[in-house]
C-alpha cells in the first residue's frame, strides 16, 4: 500500500476487508497477537488497547457548565468557524460527523445531522467524552494523537466492538509557535469514508487550522522547537519543517537541553546508558549522526552543547510552574517526557517534571486543576489526586460520584483498606 495511513488499498472489497479484519480482531482478543493482514498502525494500537474491555464505552469527563467553560478557553475554540466552513457541508449531509478533540482525546465539539448524532450518542461519541486509546481503544482521533499522524480507522479495525460499524479519519493539530499538540480534527461516518479523499481532507483541515493559529506570522528560522512530552520519539520544528528523531537522538537532545552549560562525553554516556564502562566510540557515533540531522551550526563539542535558541515543551512546563502558573503548565503538558525511554538521565528528568507538576496541582486543591491532572496519563491512576478531587468537589457536583468511584477502584487495585480510602476522599 502506497500510504500506510489509509485503510483500504485501491480496488479492495470493503465487505471482504471487514470480515478479514474482524476475524483478526477476534483472534487478537483470544491470543494477544494479530495476523500479518492487519495494518501495522492498527496492530500496534490494538496492543496499546489490550487491557480494555472490547465492549466498553468511552467515559464522559465533562458536561454542562464545566464542558462549556473548558472548551471556551481551549486554544482551538477560535478555529471552530474554520472547521465548520471546511467540514460543515460534510457533517450536515446526513452521513457524517465532524468532531474536534483536545490533546487528551476529550471531544470538544461533535456536529452533524441530528439522526447521525443520535446514533453516535449510543457509543458516547459526544462532547466531553474521552476518546483517547486508553479509554476508547483504537479509533481515528485517539490513534492520531497516539502516533501524532493523520490516520484512517476502518470498521472492524476499531478495538471496541460497539464502534466497529463506523469508519473515521483524523489528523493532529499543533500549536504553530511551539509545536505543542493541541488536539485533532475528525470526520466519522460509514464505510464509504475509507477513501484517500477523506484522509486528505482532514490533513488539509489540520494544516489550515495551524495556519489560522499562526495568524500569518513569519516563522523565525533561528528558533528551533522540540516536542518531547507524551511521545516516545521527539519532533523538531525548524523554520516550518518537522523532523522526527529516533529514540536515541531524542534522548540526547533532551539531555543537552537540560544541561545548557554542556556535558562531557563521559557525563552524557552515564546519562544515556548508565554505564561508565561504555566505549566512547559508541556515543561519538550517535552524536555524529545527531549533528548531521541538526546541522553543524546547532551542536557544539568540547563540551557537547546546543547553540542558538532551542525551545522545548518540557522546559515550557517547568517555566510555567516556576512562574506559579499551574493551569498553564497543565495545558502545556500532553504527557510524560519520552515515556518509553529508560535512559537514566531522561528517567530522572521525567520523574522531576511529573513530580513538580503533581505537587503543584495537589497544593492548589482546585477542582478544575485536579480534574485536568487526573485526565492525563500520569494522573489517571493517581489515587491521591482522585481522593483530593473528591474532597474538593462540593456535594451534588456531577463529577463527585465519579471521583469517589475511581478512588475506591484504585484503592482496591492498590490493596488499600476500603474504609481508609473512603475516609480520605470524604474528609
UniProtKB/TrEMBL annotation:
An example of a GO molecular function for this protein is: DNA binding
Recorded hits in InterPro entries, A to Z, give: GAF-like_dom_sf (IPR029016), OmpR/PhoB-type_DNA-bd (IPR001867)
Q: What is a biological process (GO) this protein takes part in? A: regulation of DNA-templated transcription
Sequence ranges assigned to domain OmpR/PhoB-type in this UniProt record: 240-306
Going by the UniProt record, its keywords in alphabetical order are: DNA-binding
- Please report the name of this protein according to its UniProt entry: OmpR/PhoB-type domain-containing protein
Amino acid at each position: 500500500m502506497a500510504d500506510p495511513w489509509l485503510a483500504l488499498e485501491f480496488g479492495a472489497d470493503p465487505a471482504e476487508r471487514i470480515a478479514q479484519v474482524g476475524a483478526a480482531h477476534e483472534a487478537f482478543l483470544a491470543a494477544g497477537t494479530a495476523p500479518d493482514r492487519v495494518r501495522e498502525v492498527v496492530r500496534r494500537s490494538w496492543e496499546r488497547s489490550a487491557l480494555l474491555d472490547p465492549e466498553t464505552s468511552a467515559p464522559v469527563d465533562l458536561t454542562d457548565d464545566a464542558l462549556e467553560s473548558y472548551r471556551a478557553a481551549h486554544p482551538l475554540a477560535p478555529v471552530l468557524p474554520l472547521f465548520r466552513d471546511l467540514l460543515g457541508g460534510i457533517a450536515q449531509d446526513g452521513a457524517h460527523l465532524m468532531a474536534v478533540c483536545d490533546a487528551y482525546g476529550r471531544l470538544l465539539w461533535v456536529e452533524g445531522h441530528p439522526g447521525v448524532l443520535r446514533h453516535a450518542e449510543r457509543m458516547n461519541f459526544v462532547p466531553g467524552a474521552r476518546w483517547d486509546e486508553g479509554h476508547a481503544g483504537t479509533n481515528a482521533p485517539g490513534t492520531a494523537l497516539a502516533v501524532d499522524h493523520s490516520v484512517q480507522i476502518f470498521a472492524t479495525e476499531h478495538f471496541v466492538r460497539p464502534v466497529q460499524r463506523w469508519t473515521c479519519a483524523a489528523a493532529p493539530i499543533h500549536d504553530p509557535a511551539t509545536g505543542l499538540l493541541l488536539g485533532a480534527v475528525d470526520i466519522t461516518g460509514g464505510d464509504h469514508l475509507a477513501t484517500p479523499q477523506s484522509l486528505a481532507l482532514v490533513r488539509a483541515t489540520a494544516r489550515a487550522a495551524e495556519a489560522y493559529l499562526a495568524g500569518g506570522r513569519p516563522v523565525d528560522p533561528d528558533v528551533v522547537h522540540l516536542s518531547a512530552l507524551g511521545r516516545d520519539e521527539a519532533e523538531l520544528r525548524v523554520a516550518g519543517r518537522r523532523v522526527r528523531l529516533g529514540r536515541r537522538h531524542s534522548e540526547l537532545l533532551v539531555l543537552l537541553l537540560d544541561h545548557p552549560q554542556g556535558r562531557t562525553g563521559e557525563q552524557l554516556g552515564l546519562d544515556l546508558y548508565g554505564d561508565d564502562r561504555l566505549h566512547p566510540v559508541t556515543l561519538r557515533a550517535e552524536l555524529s549522526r545527531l549533528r548531521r540531522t541538526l546541522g553543524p551550526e546547532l551542536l557544539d563539542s568540547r563540551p557537547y552543547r546546543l547553540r542558538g535558541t532551542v525551545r522545548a515543551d518540557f522546559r515550557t512546563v517547568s517555566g510555567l510552574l516556576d512562574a506559579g502558573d499551574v493551569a498553564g503548565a497543565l495545558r502545556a503538558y500532553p504527557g510524560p517526557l519520552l515515556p518509553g525511554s529508560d535512559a537514566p538521565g531522561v528517567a530522572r528528568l521525567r520523574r522531576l517534571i511529573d513530580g513538580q507538576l503533581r505537587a503543584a496541582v495537589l497544593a492548589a486543591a482546585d477542582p478544575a486543576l485536579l480534574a485536568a491532572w487526573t485526565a492525563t496519563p500520569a494522573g489517571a491512576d493517581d489515587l491521591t489526586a482522585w481522593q483530593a478531587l473528591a474532597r474538593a468537589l462540593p456535594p451534588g457536583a456531577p463529577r463527585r460520584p465519579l471521583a469517589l468511584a475511581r478512588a475506591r477502584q484504585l484503592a482496591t487495585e492498590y490493596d488499600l483498606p476500603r474504609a481508609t480510602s473512603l475516609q480520605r476522599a470524604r474528609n
